[in-house]
Design a protein that fits this description.
single chain; 129 residues; 0% strand; elongated
């Protein structure tokens, strides 16, 4: 989808509205719909150009990180499925299942705080070696 207006142009239009120009005049002048104008106002209202660019960067980074999390989660589920179906090396699969449980505990510990995460990692690696 090609955008007709850059962030700079959108913010300029919104500043014109803030300066006192009527929304209907701006809509007609720039050939945009009323819905588009108010969507821009809710998203970019009160922002400067640098802030809008930073917002776009953060949205792109967030989209990329969500994709990485989805890929890693899928890999994790696949590995767990392989381990659960592997009947040839039961002792090894039991050890791997224990390590997966520990990694899950590590991930949950990350929510509690960085220091607790380090302590949990240290304990997990000491028990596996």
């Amino acid at each position: 989808m090609k955008k007709r207006f850059s962030e700079e142009q959108i913010i300029k239009i919104l500043k014109e509205h803030k300066a006192g120009k009527k929304a209907t005049d701006l809509i007609r002048e720039h050939n945009i719909s009323e819905q588009t104008f108010y969507r821009w106002k809710s998203k970019y209202g009160g922002m400067e150009v640098s802030e809008a660019k930073r917002l776009k960067q953060l949205e792109d980074e967030n989209r990329r990180l969500k994709g990485l999390v989805a890929d890693l989660t899928l890999d994790n589920h696949i590995l767990k499925d392989i381990i659960s179906k592997n009947a040839y090396s039961l002792p090894t699969s039991v050890k791997l299942q224990q390590r997966f449980k520990q990694s899950t505990r590590l991930a949950n510990a990350g929510r509690a705080g960085f220091a607790e995460l380090i302590a949990a990692a240290r304990d997990a690696f000491q028990t596996t070696t």
